[in-house]
Amino acid sequence: MSKRRPYVRPMEGWWKKNPYFVEYMIHESTALFVAGYAFVLLVGLVRLGQGEAAWNGWLEALSSPFSLIIHLLFLVAILYHTYTWFKIMPITMPPIIVGGKKVGPGVITGSGLLAALGASLVMFGLVFWLGG
């Protein structure tokens, strides 16, 4: 009969020992900023439904210096999240073969970033075209 071994808890901070895991944890933590900004937009939608005074109050709150700093922090975190999302993409998807050759990871990452940039520019264009 074999003797049962006691459960040994994994060491804390195991992810700090490998740079890949550190980068992955930073990437995953920036998802909280994405969720935070989604919450800011959701509050704006609720305020819009509450009437013009509530909407104008929300817009005024967004124009405060503190809010502008927070938005800059959101922007940096979301840009980093977007970059690392597309950087991870070639690792997580099946190989793409074009003309008998495997498409390199740089091409996949670059294509994803260009698609994100294009979609963002289209959205900005629509906002200025419809809002102006």
End-to-end C-alpha gap: 80 Å
Order of helices and strands: HHHEEH
- Tell me the count of domains: 1
What is the name of the CATH architecture?
Answer: Up-down Bundle
> With helices defined by DSSP (H or I, 4 residues minimum), what is the helix count?
4
Choose one word for the global shape: flat
Would you count the extended β strands for me?
2
Helical percent range? Answer: over 70%
Q: What is the chains' assembly state?
A: single chain
What is the averaged pLDDT score? 92
Kindly provide the name of the CATH class.
Answer: Mainly Alpha
Largest sheet: 2 strands, antiparallel
Q: What is the gyration radius calculated from CA atoms?
A: 22 Å
Low-pLDDT ranges:
none
Q: Could you characterize what this model shows?
A:
The protein is mostly helical. The chain has one domain (14-131): Fumarate reductase/succinate dehydrogenase, transmembrane subunit (3 helical TM bundles of succinate and fumarate reductases, Up-down Bundle), CATH 1.20.1300.10. The protein is built from four helices and two strands; from the N terminus they run αααββα. The chain has helices spanning 19-50, 52-62, 65-92, 105-131; strands at 97-98, 101-102. A two-stranded antiparallel sheet has the order 1-2. A hairpin with a 2-residue loop joins strand 1 (97-98) and strand 2. The longest helix is centred in the N-terminal third of the chain and has 32 residues, at 19-50. The mean pLDDT is 92.
